[in-house]
Design brief:
2 copies of one chain form a homodimer. The first copy, chain A, is of the alpha/beta class. Chain A folds into 2 domains: 141 residues, NAD(P)-binding Rossmann-like Domain (Rossmann fold); 148 residues, Dihydrodipicolinate Reductase, domain 2. The first copy, chain A, has 12 helices and 14 strands. An 8-stranded mixed sheet of chain A has the order 8-9-10-7-11-12-13-14. A 6-stranded parallel sheet of chain A has the order 3-2-1-4-5-6, with helices on both faces. In chain A, a hairpin with a 2-residue loop joins strand 11 and strand 12. The two termini of chain A are 32 Å apart. Chains A and B meet through strand 7, strand 8, strand 9, strand 10 and strand 11 of A and strand 7, strand 8, strand 9, strand 10 and strand 11 of B.
Chain lengths: 351, 351
């Protein structure tokens, strides 16, 4: 059974997704992209042409009803993930939704319940958790002895921040679209930490806010009974990106962004360090997509649903972080999202 | 006028101090070490022999009364800094006291008042604030634009931690001697941050505690109106040491411990980075000692006293950090320290 995908959004992440899809297909994977949706015919056509996709939709309802796709890949701004995913599920489509999954835990639970009820696949696209180096860390974390510190820094000055300062109100710095450093970048640190250590005892977020109340940069502290995780991200400055995981007996260190876990240097009991790298770096979305396809081919809905615990945990931790810092999204105030809409969002990248 | 010093303690830091003293002397500085004090004749003699010091005292009272010294260098365990410094001041001696200066802010104020009253020099020996690279950063911090993040990590697995785990109760892991990661290592991050940015809006400490309530590792978050400082230190694991200072327009980064600010890489507006290094690394205590001697030669008590604001601020921030984490030292419970004592402490390094 071929996994026939249609995409929402035209940001750089959709290009990455389609490149990963092509790689998987070239290796014999039964996967194809059959349609793209964009509000803009021009942007949609350009995306489709770049990747040889047959159909371009500019009408969201028509896209959702299209018979040639069974999977919708949602890469709209964070604040629209819920609406687009819900709409797809209600139209009987499986869903792959980008990070951050939804605006809050309530929305996440509503989506996972709906998918379970309708017996549809619902995947969160978070590259980190499916990267071979990250899985290697999960499997070897016990070698570090008693855990002490996890530090991750994903700081990158955003060109959209210049737009924000110029008064252009880009989505990624807009609380109406659930933007900010936590949702956009720190989510990678948080998913990495939670995927290793599970539910923390406490969550605190210290952040630098823009005038509109959105977080530009900051640190989430997760506490566990005898160790800490410090998750830092910034969109208002460049900083050295890294992940550093330390136990009493050794450490794992990657001098790159916490989304990738590239070139993990492992050192146990002060012995010479070994660098672990068993993954492609030019196609970081390959691994998650390969995993989604595998579950789909096996028809393994039960395994898909086991991942919902992780999705709920991540969104609950993000909610608690925002609560501690007083960050409120428009989505938090809505009891119910509209089923449909004209897709009032930019097609731009969620970065 | 020669600065005639007598030392208390026989840890590695005293060797460093005496090496810096010799270097300063070899360059024409009017400074000499005339006596060492140790509870152990053997340890004191070994130290004196290594550095060609004439006198060894094992009686603290006799040492304090010795006519051949006018400066006491206090390098005993943290919890005894106050007692030894106070005793020296009461004996009419000037004082150079190691970091952390005292156990708490109350003790610090009592010492600085006493020194002011008696018109004696009282210096805190904190290498960071006197390092040329650090002073360069202070002078150039405005080039980074609006400040966003300061991150420092001084994590180093302590061999004394093995002793602690073996039940040996070393000073540095003992609340009776004001030990722990905050007082021993994180103080370098905190002094560096406070020396750049002054008094923070809030102080929070998240830490991993030993069974005796001491902090083994942790992170202090200092918040300012629109930026954060994250100060991390550990004695229970090795981690990558660094200091990372980020504004909207650029960054300063040192891939070494925050005591030294070695090889500071400066990058402004994404332009090619420049590495700043204008300091000796084999003699890190040289710079503070040179500064102390300069003030002493000038008889500049007013300048010495201007530094008390910094000392008070640092100890107040450390107090607030401990309060937020529930760390209490024996010294916090004493209304008044004893004037004198047999010096019930190990001569070992404060690390």
């Amino acid at each position: 059974m071929v996994m026939r995908v249609g995409t929402i959004g035209t940001g750089f992440i959709v290009d990455r997704f389609l490149n990963a899809l092509k790689l998987l297909k070239s290796q014999g994977g039964s996967i194809s992209c059959e349609a793209v949706y964009s509000r803009s015919e021009q942007n949609g056509r350009a995306l489709a042409d770049r990747h040889g996709v047959a159909r371009v939709y500019t009408d969201l309802e028509a896209f959702m009803e299209s018979p040639e796709i069974d999977f919708v890949y949602v890469a709209s701004p964070n604040g629209l993930h819920f609406m687009h995913s819900r709409m797809a599920l209600l139209h009987g489509k499986h869903v792959i939704c980008e990070k951050s999954f939804t605006s809050n835990g309530r929305e996440a639970r509503e989506l996972t319940s709906l998918a379970a009820e309708k017996q549809l696949f619902l995947f969160e696209a978070i590259i980190t958790l499916h990267m071979p180096n990250y899985i290697w860390i999960q499997e070897n974390i016990n070698k570090l002895g008693r855990m002490r510190l996890f530090q991750g820094n994903f700081s990158k000055y955003s060109t959209r921040y210049d737009d924000y300062k110029a008064g252009k109100n880009p989505n990624i710095f807009n609380p109406d679209f659930s933007g900010g450093a936590l949702m956009d970048l720190n989510v990678y640190n948080i998913e990495a930490a939670l995927g290793l250590f599970g539910k923390p005892e406490s969550v605190h977020y210290f952040c630098n806010k823009a005038d509109n109340g959105i977080d530009l940069s900051g640190t989430v502290i997760l506490t566990y009974p005898d160790f800490l995780c410090e998750c830092t991200a910034a969109k208002d400055c460049n900083a050295n990106q890294f992940v550093s995981i330390h136990g009493e007996d050794g450490s794992f260190y990657s001098p790159y962004a916490p989304s990738f876990f590239t070139d993990v240097r492992a050192e146990i009991n002060g012995r010479d360090s070994v660098t672990v790298n068993g993954q492609l770096m030019d196609q970081p979305m390959y691994y998650e997509l390969e995993w989604f396809l595998k579950l789909f081919e096996r028809g393994d809905l039960a395994e898909c649903q086991r991942w919902y615990d992780m999705i709920h945990l991540v969104m609950d931790v993000m909610d608690e972080a925002r609560r501690s810092a007083g960050i409120i999204f428009a989505a938090d105030c809505k009891a119910q999202q509209p089923l449909c809409g004209k897709g009032e969002f930019e097609d731009g990248p969620s970065e």
